[in-house]
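Appendix B. Raw example, untouched.
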Amino acid sequence: MMMAQNERIMFRDGRLMTLSAYPGNRVYGERLVNIDGNEYREWSPNRSKLSAYICLGGSHLPFTGSSNVLYLGAASGTTASHVSDIVNEGTVYCIEFSQRSFRDLVVTCEMRKNMIPILGDATRPESYSFALGNVDVVYQDVAQKGQADIFADNMECFSARYGMVSIKARSEDVTASPEKIFDKACERLAERGMTVIDIVSLEKYEKAHMMIVVERVI
């Protein structure tokens, strides 16, 4: 799915924005902009790895307006809220392990009916499978060892066709080169039945990070 096909994302004056699904609702103090009678929320690449991917020329965004998304590592919901704008007719299931971040996430979700907060451990997808069925897309931002397998486990558990995973090299091995770690992640995803369809370095905004977009062979 090519980036240009998504009409709920806009670049204006060099700034990335999403068409707000909940006009008047700020999540983290972001700027609201009225364009032709529609409200857009500014989406800074300094605050979001997904925004960074798009701003750095990422060519694939596997979300449609009706997509159901499993978001692993939602934290307080900053990026997840922009995903909820994009999938305005779908649902974003937000998994967060930290109880402190989860409290903030709950507040964000209270203002957005298509965001569902779930306190859970991304390494154990079966532990929260009761709360959701199959999804269309898995998005992962989990900074711990074994990121590729955590991602693949969730892709399989919830029968997702598409996925995006932000790989943090230093969470895997602080002694190995990031390039080697990224290559290994791609190899492991291929072993787990994924086809890599886009890879973008996030180095400009996030040191030693890579966004990988995949399609699962079904």
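End of appendix B.
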